Amino acid sequence: MTEALSKRLAKIYEELFKLYGRVECPLHHETPFQLLVATIISAQCTDLRVNKITAGLFKKYPDVQSMATSEPEDIETYIRSAGLFRAKARNLVNAARKIQNDFNGEVPQKMSELTSLPGIGRKTANVILGNAFDIPGFPVDTHVLRLSGRLGISTSRNPVHVEKTVTAAIAPQYWVNLSHLLIQHGRKVCKAGKPACQECPLRTICDYYRNRDRQC
Predict the structure, then answer these.
(1) Residue 188 belongs to what domain range?
(2) Cβ neighbours of residue 31 under 8 Å, at least 6 residues apart?
(3) What CA dihedral angle connects 86, 98, 172 and 23, to 10 degrees?
(4) How far is the C-alpha of 33 from the C-alpha of 35, rounded, in Å?
(5) Alpha helices by DSSP H, 61-174
(6) Same domain? 144 vs 211
(7) Distance CA 48, CA 211 (A)
(8) What is the rounded CA–CA span in Å between residue 209 and residue 147?
(9) Would the pTM of this model clear 0.85, i.e. be above it?
């Protein structure tokens, strides 16, 4: 199964790379801490809105120390247009304080340490590891889950299971960009409600397209 999946993933990567190339993280940041902040804010929020929010937020609170010495109410003023802004403000301040107190003011570079921070789950930690530290990780969001099912990568709806399935079948140097490619393709072509299958170079190996074709 792993060998067949490895070949499938290689084909998926090859075709999507032709379309999109190397995809950069869309969240604007200059430091690992700023990426951490942006990822916490990004839950249920578009990348475009996050970048608008952080443009102002980072002018006032650009680093761990400045945010650690703030109060959640201070942060709320800047992130009010994000969903769940009160919870996010608490997580941002508490994460900054924990980094300051437990990690000498430096964003940790281990999964277990990152996920010990308020507001940081496994997906977010993988985003930070891969994009801030060049440590291979495979973030699984709703787009990656959807495309994994449609493309015959994994039928599981468990993000950790999908992550482990993919990382066991493809070399680490491809993990970060493969996640970016799947997300990009999910946004542009393989949409949840109405996928543009005729535009997709993966339709010849796509379980979803094959099954849909049989039903027509």
Answers:
(1) 2-23+139-215
(2) 62, 63, 132
(3) 40
(4) 5
(5) 64-68, 72-79, 85-102, 111-114, 122-132, 142-150, 159-167
(6) yes
(7) 35
(8) 12
(9) yes
Catalytic residue among 52, 74, 141, 164: 141
Same domain, 19 and 38: no
**Of the residues 114, 132, 150, which one is the last residue of a structural domain?**
132
Torsion sign (Cα): 26, 28, 33, 39: negative
- pLDDT category at 105 given cuts 50, 70, 90 is very high
Let me know if 59 is a catalytic residue. no
Selecting among 47, 123, 188, 207, the annotated active-site residue is 123
The answer on 118 and 55 residing in a single domain is yes
pLDDT digits (tens, 9 = 90+) for 9-30: 999 999 999 999 999 999 999 9
Report the SS3 class of residue 165: helix
Residue with tokens 């300051």: 100
Q: Is 123 an active-site residue?
A: yes
Residue with tokens 């027509």: 216
What is the count of structural domains for the chain?
A: 2
CATH number of the domain at 189, please: 1.10.1670.10
User: Are residue 95 and residue 150 in the same domain, yes or no?
Assistant: no
- Which residue matches tokens 């996920």? 115
